[in-house]
Design goal:
It contains 17 helices and 13 strands. With 600 residues, it is an alpha+beta fold. The strands form three sheets. Strands 3, 4, 5, 10, 11, 12 and 13 form a seven-stranded mixed sheet that branches. Strands 6-7-8-9 form a four-stranded antiparallel sheet.
Length: 600
Amino acid sequence: MRFIDKIKEKLSGLVEALSRYPLTVTFLVAATVINAIAIHQEVDYTSYLLTFLVGAFLGICFQAGWERFSDRASVRLAAMALCLVLTLGYFLIVRQHSSTSIETWIRTSVALFALLIAYIWVPVVKSEVNFNQSFMVAFKAFFNALLFSGVLFIGSTLIITAIDLLLFSVSDKLYLDSLNIVGMLFAPIYFLSLIPIYPGARDKNRPPEKLVYAREKLERSWQCPKFLEVLVSYIVIPLLTVYTVILIIYIIGNITGNFWTDNRLEPMLVSFAIAVIVIYILASSLENKLAGWFRSIFPKVLVPIVLFQIVASILQIQEIGITYGRYYVILFGFFAAVSGVLMSFMPIRKNGIIAALLIGFSLFSILPPVDAFTISRANQVGRLTAALTENKMLENDQIKPNGLLPEGDKKIISDAINYLAMMEYTKGLPYLDKDFNVYDDFYDVFGFYRYEENPYRQDSLYLSLNQQSAIDISDYEIFLVVNFYSQDQNQDPIISTFESEGKVYTLKWDKTLSPGRLILSDETDSELIGIDMKAVFDRFDTTQGDNYQVSKNFLSADQATFTQANDEAVISLIAMFLGIDKSGTQPYYSGDFYVLVQIR
């Protein structure tokens, strides 16, 4: 009977969520439908999907605000109307673009995150319930919804698989349909069904027995499960303590050196700050010595570590300029530092201020003219224009190619163009054609091959042949494809044997010298011509620094050709793909080549 009562309670919660959030449920249904259409038609409906998600998140926020501050149906209708207007406004903005850009995705994601935090914070503004309790409710609801949705999806997947194997074949897209329904519709509705109604303006018109029931349900919702208390207090906090000690030792040991330039440490410090803030809020609902110790010590440790990271990130701007990623790292650093100060001195009941602060920083980062994208675009365009002007490459909004620039200026131009192209900002530059393609046109426009950031901090080179580039084979009699891998000592030495004017010739590898030689020999095994593969790779290797790689994308056949000739024969190698990896102790050479041979 108790199990049946639980099932009834869950079902009643789902029904209540449908009536409590009608606008959000409508948008979620629309998002599920448009996603299903996209799955089967393979058409990009991203702008519609994002619009419906924005509408769904706005719906829960306006509903939470109405429940907290009003009891009038007319106010609720006005809030729903405003939600529709804002959603329509968002759609009119994103539909102006033919495709959904990285900027649109990030702006929308940050806005949805801010709305989610607002949904947790608004119901407890000036309430007897504090933000820590509301956060615990949402935290538990999220993982409950994740668990139930995961089980439901696995179950539906097993059923579909059983039908496909035992009864009749089904489309593979049925699995995506199942994931769409569970993830886009069931999971969020189930999450909302677990969020109780908080004390609000409507309480004065509700019967006393309903108020008592609602209060009991609310208290059950924010109670921390014993499992979670043990996990946070006796596992997560000790692990985070050890992690913090390691970070502090590293920072102290490298404060005068690598710390300020080590990009690998940056995500670790950001993750540390996120973990401290989340665990602090969860620990605010716990009553044990470890949780109390964490609340009193870690906010004070957080502040200096984050301040160090802010300074390091600002110093790195001088090297690569401002990108949206760097902007968010620095902005989050300021948020974490301010939060650390607040957590160090204010009562834990006032943690709602941190939520309000997070919402404010999020909106600050997406609203022009101080948003991440306006500032990063202006900075990168400024760096690019300055480098071109200083090297006298810019004249009357026309770029004059120049391959003799200092390596530092080449890298500045490459970094700026890489970022602007990735963010689809190059169309707005007066000195670049609207159809400029960073892969096809970079060399022709600037006169040198572009550099890319290399995460391994080693020189590397990658070349690709433009597959539409015509290859003149009129002067050759043999054409074949050859693969080369410098570290493959087991590679068959014989590449090909062919006949020309009654004589037999052999093309083979000689790996006795590193990285190898390509040899053409006659019937007596006498070498007619040999090509040192190191010379071939050196022909293309123009890497100079120690923290970038050169990409020569989509070269023409002429640019990708290496030719060697003597009185006996002519061999031309045309690189379809060529790579030089210097991340190890010895360079690794690899390539796929068209090989053209002419016997003289």
